[in-house]
Amino acid sequence: MSKLRFNVVQDAFKKKAVEVEAPAERPSSYFGELAFNRDKMRKYLDIRTYDALIDCIDNGKPLDMDTADKVADGMKTWALEHGVTHITHWFQPLNDLTAEKHDSLLEYDRKGGMIEAFDGKSLIQQEPDASSFPSGGLRATFEARGYTAWDPTSPVFIQEDTLCIPTVFIAYTGESLDYKAPLRKALKAVSDAALPVCRLFDPAVRKVHSYLGWEQEYFLIDEDLYAARPDLMLTGRTLMGHASSKNQQLDDHYFAAIPSRVAAFMRDLEIEGYKLGIPLKTRHNEVAPNQFEFAPIFGEVNLANDQNQMIMTVMYKVARRHGFVVLLHEKPFAGINGSGKHNNWSLGTDTGVSLLAPGKDAKGNLQFVTFFVNVLAAVQRHNALLKASIASATNAHRLGANEAPPAIVSAFLGRAMTDALHKLLECPSGTPIEIAGKKGTSVGIVEIPQIFMDNTDRNRTSPFAFTGNRFEFRAVGSSANCAGAMTVLSAAVAEQLLLFKQDLDRELAAGKELNVAVMDTLKPIIRSILDVICFEGNGYSDEWQAEAKRRGLDTETSVPEMIKAFTTPASIRLFTSLGIHTQKELEARNEVKWEIYSKKIQIESRVMGRMAANHIVPAALSYQNRLLKNVSLMKDVYPDTYLEKAAVSLDLVDKISDLVSVIRERVEAMVAARKKANVLESEYEKARAYHEIAESLAAIRKPLDKLEEIVDDDLWPLPKYRELLFIN
Ligand code: ADP
Ligand code: MG
Question: Which of 190, 208, 212, 215 to mutate to test the pocket of ligand 1 (most atoms within 8 A of CB)?
Fold first, then answer.
């Protein structure tokens, strides 16, 4: 090992866990301390202002400016008590990150002094010069204005000295430029569509909520080792690196004792999360070495998503306090598991009934089956779009790359529900759906065991799995904003529920009883989903590829092509009819996706080329020189037999020459391809060209990794996988 690398590795290895300064009180007592939640509203707002704000949050009633001023004033008092000096409109542009521009609260008091000021106007709206955010041409730079507008349904929160106001980000002309605006619209659409269906079963229902529980996977890497890898620093993943002899074969990391440095990081992160009101619940080691996961208690989708966006930023900051860097890239290391963000999703009523869990009685079960089947029908109709919603340059390394999930969206129901659906098809419509053992006198033809979790035949290869009381959309990438996936899923379900209700109304108009009408409407849908979207087998097998194609499911594996699913006639109809996106917006957002895709691959390709030229090839040539010196010394000592004596060296010299030439050839071809791609006008065409370049990166990697295998470890300039992955 080179002296330099040795020092870095040793230093990293010797680091001890950082002491975490935990608050003296229990988490429940400081939970939400830095969020302006309902408790704070009650404390800092007068009763009329409080009522008006709650009416706005719960029922969408607009706030007048006078009330907004009072809300801002209450927030200011609270914020100043926490040492806040700045405010920011916090938003979620299309780059999957969050954005913040801070303004201090300082104003002239018009009496020659200064005061801290914050009013309703600056709470409700800001006009950042947002010309550099991706907009797909919706906002040409010369009319750079974009607005951020307060989302009162998500509490403002404090980060360090800044009051952060969750906002939507829209163009001057009204189009949304972010993830939050369409998400809010889609959530409203699914709530509106689900309500009339619920009310058939229980007229007392007033509102339907959508819930999200995300499971965030991530890698931690020591910051010294990270800093020694230009690829990690610039692209978030290793572009080269031979597999370590030991990686995850023994499954000895999964659920293992959490290393002390990591445990300290997790503790610290949880404290920060609790203060922000993020109900973090679960933490554990994941399958790959240095891979971990945490998950909160699920909550309303919009808030849960904001909290995921918040915590991703907090993670980076907290990790640095512990000498780590967090990697949220979906595939930082080849050959071991990548990271996703399972989106556990469900619908529930304001009366506390989960619409995706079996009910208390036959009626409840009928309602459950209604929602269950309609969700699957929605996923079936828009399977290509759902895949597009999670497609990105970074997630592409998971999709179709023989790792959860495959690049085909199918659904896993489990034995119990599959059998239940088959039985439902067999019995006459109107047969009560009973839960076995619950009523004693069961006429139960269809048995739906209440606890699926325990008998769950979990299928890890399925991208969309039913897990007893929710669906788990597993294809979402670890670095993604969940809103992309949640918007599409919500829209698709809303559309399907509207169609279902229309058909159901026809059956009811024909004079059928509700339970008969519901089953008559559901049966053709059940037949169809069992034939098409439901798949219980191995999602990685070649047979499934062929079978999925036959069933009419989308099997596209190239990200630039997947993205096109957003602008098919069916998708345009879906989004425009529900008022979530205009066609222009959809087209613009695709431009953004293609542009980001190309740029990410472009950066990777440049880093790859330079690391090959400046790191790997010189190391290989140095080693080759040593070998040649060995040959020449052999010749001095054994003039007659040196060819035989130095055979190993000569063989290595040859190998290195061959590999170095292959690398040069492939890098030159890649650079030429990049030049061609860069002049393409259309973002789609450019992304297609970069897709080819992405594939060539893998081809360049092979000889580089081969060199790592043969070059003297002493000369190798980069920390190796075995050094990166086992230090925490
Ligand atoms: P797993 O065993 O799948 O890894 P985890 O415990 O890591 O599960 O995470 C499960 C996530 O699902 C949690 O965030 C949890 O709150 C969430 N969840 C549980 N029930 C529901 C539900 N009905 N709707 C939405 N999310 C749910
Ligand atoms: Mg989990």
Answer: 215
